[in-house]
Write the structure tokens for this entry.
Amino acid sequence: MADMALYGAKSAGRNGYRFFDPDMGAAADARLALENELRRAIQQNELELHYQPIIDTKTRRICSAEALIRWRHPTKA
């Protein structure tokens, strides 16, 4: 718990301090749950790769593309 306050103070900049807040623990728990869900999603092949073209409006030609990952979560829409 003290670590969470320490990292919060460090991320806020120099000469700061931070007291532990229960919200810090809740945020850490939520992040851990998301990480675990993503690991499971990879194992279950729930991630889909899509390419989206980026078009030059002057020439109307594809000049590049961006890769997008869509997560087909079994319970969340």
User: Anything to note?
Assistant: The chain has one domain: 2-71.
